[in-house]
Specification:
about 80 residues; alpha+beta; Alpha-Beta Plaits; three-stranded antiparallel sheet; 2 helices; globular; binds iron/sulfur cluster
C-alpha cells in the first residue's frame, strides 16, 4: 500500500515552505495533495500537515527541485533537506 507508514521515516512535527524559493512546480502537491496546495500566487502552502502519511510528505519534500519544503522532527531537528 502506497500510503502505509514506513518505519524508517522519522516523525514529522513541522512543515515549512520557503516561499521565496518555491518556483511553483507543484510536484509536492502532486505527491501529497492533502498536505500541500498552491495559493493564489502559485506558491505552495501547507493546508493540513496531517493530511498524508509522513513517508508521503518526505517524498513530496524530496521531489521539490529547489528544496523549498523543509521538514522538522519533534525535537526541532531538520529532517529534510539534510543538514
Ligand atoms: S515542489 Fe517545491 S517548488 Fe514546487 S510547488 Fe512545491 S514547494 Fe514549490
Amino acid at each position: 500500500m502506497a500510503d502505509e507508514q514506513k518505519n524508517d521515516t522519522p516523525k514529522i512535527a513541522k512543515i515549512e515552505v520557503d516561499r521565496d524559493a518555491c518556483i511553483s512546480v507543484a510536484s509536492c502537491v502532486d505527491i501529497a495533495p492533502e498536505v500541500f496546495e498552491l495559493d493564489s500566487e502559485g506558491k505552495a502552502v501547507v493546508k493540513n500537515s496531517q493530511g498524508n502519511p509522513d513517508n508521503t510528505i518526505l517524498e513530496a519534500a524530496q521531489s521539490c527541485p529547489v528544496n523549498a519544503v523543509i521538514l522538522y522532527d519533534e525535537d526541532g531537528k531538520r529532517i529534510w533537506p539534510k543538514e
